Structures are given as C-alpha cells and as structure tokens.
Request: fold
Amino acid sequence: MTRHALILVGAGALAALALFYSLKGGHAAKLGNNDIDDLKASIERIADAQTALSQRLDRIEYRAGTGTAALPPAIPFNAGLARPADGNESKLSAAQRAALQANSVHALEDLMVRDPLSPQWASANEKTIGDFLDPGNLARQQLPVPKDAQTECHSHLCRISMTFPDPQQASRTESMLLLQIAPNMPNAQTVMVPQPDGSVQMLVFAGDTQAFRRP
Amino acid sequence: MKILNTAYIASALTLVVATMAADPAHAASDRKSFSAARCQSLVSQGTTDGELSVSHNGIYNPGTTAEWVICEVPMDSETGWAATPGSSGTLTVYYETGAVSGRVLCNLFVGSNAMQSTPLYSYSASPSRSDPYTRAYMSMNLSYPSTDPGFFVVPVNLECMLTPKATLAGFYFNENLPTDTP
Reply:
C-alpha cells in the first residue's frame, strides 16, 4: 500500500462521514452547533491518524527496503517542537566530548588501516600533498607552515596530520589543501584535536570516491 | 439550511483532503535553487567586500587576483545525510567565465569543527579552466551521517574561489531525504 493509497482511504473515510451526516440531516431540520463541532473533531482525529499511519508506512518501507522513503526520521517528528538540530552533543561534558572525538578518530584510523596499500597511488598523492606543504608554496599562498606535518597514503585514502597555533590558521590551510587535492581526492573528513599547549592538531582523512563508501 | 450544511461539510472535506495530499510535513525530498546573494566575501582568505561585485546575475570578481566567498547552504532535511557521499544529497554550482579563461573552485563543508567533536565532512571540486565567456557547472556530493551522541544535523557552508573575471551565478540543491519543507 502506498502513501497515495492511504490518502485515498482517508478521503474515503471522510466521504463516508459526510454521507452519514447528510443522511442524518435528512431526518433533522438542521445540524446543530454540537453536530458541527463533533464533525470538526472527527475530521481532526482522522487527519491525525492518517499522518501517523503515513509515518509508520515510511518506517516499514525503509526496513523492508522498498518504497520511496530513502531514510526514516531518526526521531519522531513533532511539529510542535523545534527540529532536532541540537542532537545530544551539547549535553555532554568536556570529558565525554573528548571520548566522542577519540572514537571518531579511531574509526577513521581503522578505515585507514583497512585501506590496502597501492604504492603507485600512494606515492603520487603523497607527492601532491608534499608539494602543497612545501614551505615555498605555503609562503606564496601566504599560509603558515604547520608543525609536525605527516602524510600517509594507501590506495583510496590519505591521512594528513598538521599542528597549528590556532584553529583559524588550520582552517585557512585546510581550505587551500582540499582544493589542491580535489581532482584525486574530493572527499574528506577533518577533526581538530586541541593540544595541551593551546595549539590544535588538524587531522584530515581525504579520499577518492571509494574511500568513504559503506559496504 | 441543509444545502448550507452540506456545502460546509464539502468545503471542510476538500480542505482536509487537499492538506493530506500536499502532506507538507513529510515531503519525500526537497529541491530548491538559491542565488549567490546568500554568499559573502571570505575575509579569512583575504577577500574584502570591495573586491567583489554583486548583482542579480551573481557575484563577479572584477579584479586580477583570485577571490573567495562563503555561502550558506539552506539544509531542510530532518536527519543527517548518509555517510556515502552523494547518496542523499547533491549541490550543483553554476558559474560563468568572463573576458579571460577561468574557473570557480569550491569546498562544501558539512558541519563545523568549532561546534562538533565528530568529523567535519567536505567535498571539493576543482574543475579545469574554461574558455572566456563560458557557462559551466559542477556537481558536489554531500555526506554526513547522523550520530548519537552527536549532532543530528549541522550547518552547511560552501567556500568558493573565483578566478579573475569569473561570476558565481547560483545553485541548485537536491536533498533526497524527508523534509518538513515542501
């Protein structure tokens, strides 16, 4: 049953309701105010039920791998509430956020480990990144020279680690780096790890179109 | 009076059925175009307002050096996109070269490292140069999985570098996910 079929069922129910009240009206001289209020309440109840049924159908279709719904709502939709943009991270303590970040980095490191080594692909892309990080090139682009720059590439994915005095300098360099490597590695995931001395380590995991595909 | 009552019922039914058919609360996908007027000069990359020309045709770089803009991308999805790039959303960027050959290069950022502990997702496009007065476009893939704990949805920003005489014209944004905006 599709959503359109559900709408037709809902419309049919409403039509039946209208017919019932019309027939009822045939025996009475007129509809009273109470009858109209009852009708309004009934219509609202049917509309609410139809919306709930439509949402349920979306979820069932998604689980069954059919239908047009690409993804079910992560949490129940409630028009009376603000959209769930805040997630849960805003409620975490600093230690919990650090643990969340460590888990994220671990997942990316794991992706890197599972990426098989292709010497040709790796050396070509390590050279591209190395050319970008060359102090002369950075100076021409008026970018700071990062500390402890390290690059490692496998067959679909590269890991680039750089340390900057502050996040703003890291972001400027990140933007230019991503454009430089875009032809071979358009996709990237970046994590900024605060360091005890106030600097920030920027970890960029950049890859080709296969790098971040899920099985 | 009976006719009036029947008319009242019919009107109410029509309204309810039309509302259900439109189903604005749960559009299966969301497509929109938006203009480059949503963009502003990217000061952190050294570009100031005076170095760009803004009109109804887009943002034009009249100078002789490359300039940067940043644009807010209006996301409507109720959940994050999928982790696989492009499987649930794409952004098409339209631009035109001017009196000299040129191009527009862009980074699409999903998230903010100043807001979240989880990774910032990005997609970058670096097309080859086009001849003078050429209209071109590029398609950019979005990705960002919802995480718990974490942020379900995050800000989306586009940074673009315009070579001299290039115009950033506008955008077409396709979210292939349920949204609450028709």
